[in-house]
Amino acid sequence: MLPIFEVCEDILTALTSSPQVLLHAPTGAGKSTVLPLEILKSGVINGRVIMLEPRRLAARSVAARLAQQLGEDIGHTIGLRMRSETKVSRHTRLEVVTEGVLTRLLQNDPKLEGVGLVILDEFHERNLQADLGLALLIDSQQALREDLRILLMSATLDNQGLSQLFPDAPVITSQGRTFPVIREYHPINPNKLFHKEVALAAWQLLQQEHGSLLLFLPGMGEIEKVRAELALMVSEDILLCPLYGALSLQAQQQAIQLAPEGVRKVVLATNIAETSLTIEGIRLVIDSGFERVGQFNPRTGLTKLVKQRISQASMAQRAGRAGRLEEGVCWHLFSEEQAERAAQFSEAEIAQSDLSSLWLSLLQWGCHDAAQLNWLTLPPKPAISSAKNLLGKLGAIDAAGKLTPFGQQMAALGSSVRTAAMLCKAQQSKNQHVIQLAALLVAIIEEPPRQQDADLRYYIERPTEGWCKRASVLCEQRVSSTIGKQDALISEWLPTLLATGFPDRIAKSRDNQQRYQLASGLGAMLNESERLIGSPWLIVMSLWQPENMADARISLAYPVEIDRLQVDCPSLFNKQETVEWDDQKGTLLAWKRLQCGQLVVKSERLSNPDNTEIRQALVYWLKQNGLQQLNWQENALQLCIRCTLAKQYFPDINLPDFDEAALLDSLDEWLEPYLDGITNKQKLQQIDLASLLVNRLDWQQQQWLERMFPVTYRAPSSHDVSIHYALDKPPVIAIRMQEMYGEKANPTVAQGKITVTVSLLSPAMRPLQITQDLGAFLARQL
Predict the structure, then answer these.
(1) The CATH classification of domain 3-173, taken from the options 3.40.930.10, 3.30.56.10, 3.40.50.300, 2.40.128.110
(2) Bridging pattern class, strands 264-269 and 212-216
(3) Is the pLDDT at 258 greater than 90, yes or no?
């Protein structure tokens, strides 16, 4: 009997009395394949049950196991909803759904009419859509559906975070059904090739133990390298099966099925195989200790795949896979000390992802502030700002940040924001061929080709069966593989559709070779063998950011004629008349430019720029290059220092700031009005800064400053001597010694708060003594 049966009554009781229930059930407990059926049998839930699985393969596998136990096919009591597949009927009582399906169900019906329970399975994976779905569920539960129940199930719950989110939720723990696993640590040599060391370890374990092997690797690249290496080492009775998210469902299904009789299997997998998947016949596990995760950069708008150490929770999950069927063995390819130093849990996907689709979903929900909802991890503000920026460029939100009608259409589609924009643009054409073309483009972009060639033209003319099938689902009509060969349709609509979804990815060649600059300002490169090299303009659909490289890499793009794009998409272009400083010539130049984002499409020189533009150009240049470009005479510097000291010693006195940052920030107030006729550096150097700066003070402030921090000191000889102020030391006067006879103490400023240092000079103006105790020094001289 599976361990979950021991706590079933506790779970059912909790569901009758608590709006949220937390279940901690390790691998093999039966939480995914047994508990849902027990809930249906019990009748404690009024209405249908929705169960979210974070991965498509897991959703299909779980739905099949549940239906099999009932002696039915999927689509009767047990339903399945995935991106490209829906099998439900009027008899369906439990629906297994994936990723964004739950969000779409909530958006279409915030009350979830007819649903009594939502189960979030494998919640420890902290999938972005699961976090979003939970936040919307809690909001619906609190505002609309007090009777709705939420069950969070996980192998390794973050109890601290969940207890803060659900302080009153009962936590139920089940034992896992696993056999003993012998865990050993076999660190590989970091100075040798990773894939060779891993392949050697796998071969050694296969030699020592019986059974099939599950080998965890960071990503697709490592999987293919280790697979090729192992193929040279193992016998023909060992089947090598890759398993990662980009594979077709059919190929993934082959990896998890039981190997034929007399054949052992090595499944080379990413962390897709850590939890909910049951892979038949596995009793050996090798854990490389690494995973590859996406880290979104809000500044560039790109996601970089980073190889990193896994958490302790992931280590336990990976090792547990060896004990599903019988006593197993797990080799960790790192030291026990490294395991102890690892983080306890992996970071949530929401904390390091592109949140443009999430923000669009929140706006559709009617939420304009993420903090209004209850989150296990609050979406980071920089990523939200980046999302708003992109949605604005796509036309999904207006200047006030509210959804436009176009944005509402995008949100209803449930696709990524870029592909949704393309599909909406196609729908506006009301042309079935255009809609089919857009659907095919989306299918290719969603599952990009793994070949080296980045030229979209090749793939649009030769679409795979999978792309055509996905496109047919998207536009709800059959998409022919010949759609991409209709020249008139392609030339008229393809650039427009791509520019609608990727306006910031229009790219201009920087050197007529591999290097490009994007409309967003980013730099990007093509591979050396690309057919696209030399194309003056591209629209880039797929970019990836290599580790330790400045420029992104282009992996899918389409060449465009910029003049034609300007006619078809005029909103992407703007005309500007600007005046700029030419550093080499030391003068101002005026330009009229046609721009696409930060890219200059055309430019021509203007001979008579407007005075206002000249002043604004100079201010912009100074803000970029700093105040040191001006001629700072001593009286101007001293004024700034005196005002700064005044604010330090008299903080209650209302004076403007005179530090460099404040002066740069207010150039348009104190400098710009006096820049008429300044067209070169020579004239710029002639500006009397002191007279302009003093105008920042009103008459009373000027008089007060002169009393507290005077420019000069009147000596006993009636001679006025300049006071030199500094920020890091006391002010100084330099004066002949005989002129100070009769003075009993050093002068002071700031109502006696600051003592002035006196530098005494000889009649020939040579330094004799520097003192802060003038009276004592002069007394000794007499």
Answers:
(1) 3.40.50.300
(2) parallel
(3) no
**Is the per-residue pLDDT at 215 higher than 90?**
yes
Pairing of strands 328-332, 282-287: parallel
CA distance 592 to 576: 6
| Secondary structure (3-state) at 191 | coil
The mean pLDDT of the chain is 90
More confident position, 583 or 268: 268
| Among 358, 377, 366, 273, residue whose Cα is nearest residue 318 | 273
Contact criterion met (CB below 8 Å) for 227 and 268: yes
Residue in 403, 423, 556, 390 with CA at minimum distance from that of residue 493: 423
Contact 140, 110 (CB under 8 A): yes
Look at residue 608 in the predicted model and tell me its pLDDT: 76
Contact between residue 314 and residue 346 where contact means Cβ atoms under 8 Å apart: yes
Domains 3-173 and 181-351 share a fold: yes
Residue 347 CB burial class (10 angstroms; 0-12, 13-18, ≥19):
middle
* Distance from C-alpha of 274 to C-alpha of 592, rounded to nearest angstrom: 58
**What DSSP designation does 219 have?**
S
Question: Which residues, 6+ apart, have CB-to-CB distance to 222 below 8 Å?
Answer: 194, 195, 198, 288
Rounded to an integer, what distance in angstroms lies between the CA atom of residue 379 and that of residue 126?
13
Look at residue 530 and tell me whether its pLDDT is greater than 70: yes
Helix (H) or strand (E) holding 601: strand 599-606
Nearest CA to 424 out of 636, 691, 434, 333 is that of 434
Q: How far apart are CA 409 and CA 404, in angstroms?
A: 9
Rounded Cα distance, 768 and 780, in Å: 14
When pLDDT is cut at 50, 70 and 90, the band that residue 273 belongs to is confident
Q: Backbone dihedral region of 180: left (phi > 0), alpha (psi from -120 to 50 degrees) or beta? A: beta
CA–CA separation, 293 and 33 (whole Å): 28
- 524-545: buried (b, 16+ CB within 10 Å) or exposed (e) per residue? bbbeeebebeebebbbbbbbeb
The CA distance from 163 to 160, in Å, is: 5
Helix (H) or strand (E) holding 140: helix 128-143
Structure tokens at 375: 């989150």
- Helix residue ranges per DSSP H, 20-127: 35-42, 56-69, 101-108
Which residues touch 437 (CB under 8 Å, ≥6 apart)?
A: 426, 483, 484, 489, 490, 493, 494, 497
- Spatial CB neighbours of 514, under 8 Å, sequence gap ≥ 6: 525, 526, 527, 528, 530, 533
According to DSSP, the residues that pair with 736 across neighbouring strands are 761
User: Residue 382 corresponds to which amino acid?
Assistant: P
Burial degree of 495 (CB within 10 A; 0-12, 13-18, 19+): buried
Selection from 589, 607, 704, 612 nearest residue 654 by Cα:
704
Ranges assigned E (strand) in 437-480: none
Fold of 181-351: Rossmann fold (3.40.50)
Spell out the domain ranges in the chain. 3-173, 181-351, 422-572, 582-705, 710-781
Is 103 within 8 Å of 135 (Cβ atoms)?
A: no
Residue 684, pLDDT score: 87
| Residues 472-481: contacts with CB under 8 Å, at least 24 apart | 472/439, 473/84, 474/415, 474/423, 474/439, 474/442, 474/443, 475/423, 475/435, 475/436, 475/438, 475/439, 477/432, 477/435, 477/436, 479/436, 479/439, 479/440, 480/436
Per-residue confidence band for 8, with pLDDT thresholds at 50, 70 and 90: very high
Whether the pTM exceeds 0.90: the reply is no
Asked if 363 and 402 touch (Cβ cutoff 8 Å), the reply is yes
For the chain, how big is the Rg over CA atoms in Å? 35
Which two three-digit tokens encode residue 761?
């000079």
